[in-house]
Amino acid sequence: MKRTTARRTGAAVAGGLAFALALTACSGNDLGGGGDDGGDDGGGDAACEDYADYGTFDGEEVTILSSIREQEADQMEDTFVDFEECTGIDVVHNGIGEFETQVVVQAEGGNAPNLAIIPQPGLLARLVNDGYILEPSEQTVANAQEGWTEEWLNYGTVDGTFYAAPLMASVKSFVWYSPTAFAENGYEVPTTWDELIALSDQIVADHGGDGVVKPWCAGIESGGATGWPATDFIEDMVLREAGPDVYDQWVSHEIPFNDPQILAATERAGSILRNEDYVNGGIGDSRSIATTSFNDGGLPILEGNCFMYRMASFYEAQWPEGTDVSPEGDAFAFYLPGDDADSKPLLTAGEFVGAFDDNEATQAVQAFMASGEWANIRVTIGGVTSANNAVDPANASSDVLRLAIELLQDPDAVARFDGSDLMPSAVGAGSFWTGMTEWIDGAETQTVLDQIEASWPAS
């Protein structure tokens, strides 16, 4: 997905980490494998021999641009502590809120970073086709192939050439709720779409009198990427309304954006997001969704003003410090049901590390970030998930994230990548976002879909 804020940060996970390293163990000058792909505790206790094959680069700096900010940025930077000490590379990360625009501006202006963490394959394709992203080193390719499935590697491939290894991944088909509030009200987690709607109606009947408490709360405001949470909702509905084959045809534009099946899926989403009886608990009417930050959208659950919030696994980070995120606690998540209990389509997202130059230090950092070792370090630090098969789900920092990793690694899952991230960036990171914002604000569904279809690039 789109990383325009700290959207996948960890919950209040270990603050400070103490790191002690023996620099004398570092050696070697060739790029190589990431060493042992087993779990790590986030830095500080790995011997430098684990990093020797990446080489030594005294005082060299490698810059990374991303949309990762706040706590998640701090956690990501912790993954490089041992690597920096042992290789001599200073990894400098800059997380910005207008990433999708600024990475293009910087590349066009000759001021590109060494590496960028790109959340949309569509944007990656644009940067590749414009000649900015270069092919990675052989070791980056080898590390990526060791842990990631062919499907995930294909997301980092443009016109048959591999350019960017996956970094992290998330499950989007989740609904956040309060197990405590459900228990107090006698509500059960729904396992089908009809049960989900019946539960929503029951909450209206039980709590709808004062006009404040609603079944659902929502927020799609996200700075320059406002609208992306609504696109996620639509994508989940396309998978449920029309199925994965139609989803693939829609994403690749084999059927038009305004196909009747997509209209039906959008209207299914609207049965929640534009239903004044259902939204926006503790915040306002349905139009308030457009001006409510996705970070804050689910917080009324803790105040008893709403009961459910559809948002990805990374939302765990947004709960205030001290929130009991557990199956019996203040907040937890359940799978967004399919039409029947056996149907479990899964919407996923991820991000990919692309290089703007082929400097050896840049290649060393890119290769490390492609490794199972880096993935285990990052997952252990907390707050994120990965589809890298080298990751041990036991390293995840919560039950929700363990569940997400297990779903991501399930070879039988009917999983599809975030559709807007796969579409041409003019649509997926442009007209789809803005169109959904207008739709939430009351625009007619068919008109919005027609406008997005008209915006699809001719070639």
Automatic annotation (TrEMBL):
Residues making up the signal peptide according to the UniProt record: 1-27
Assigned keywords, A-Z: Signal, Transport
InterPro entries: Bact_solute-bd_prot1, SBP
Family: Belongs to the bacterial solute-binding protein 1 family.
Organism, scientific name: Occultella gossypii
Entry protein name: Carbohydrate ABC transporter substrate-binding protein
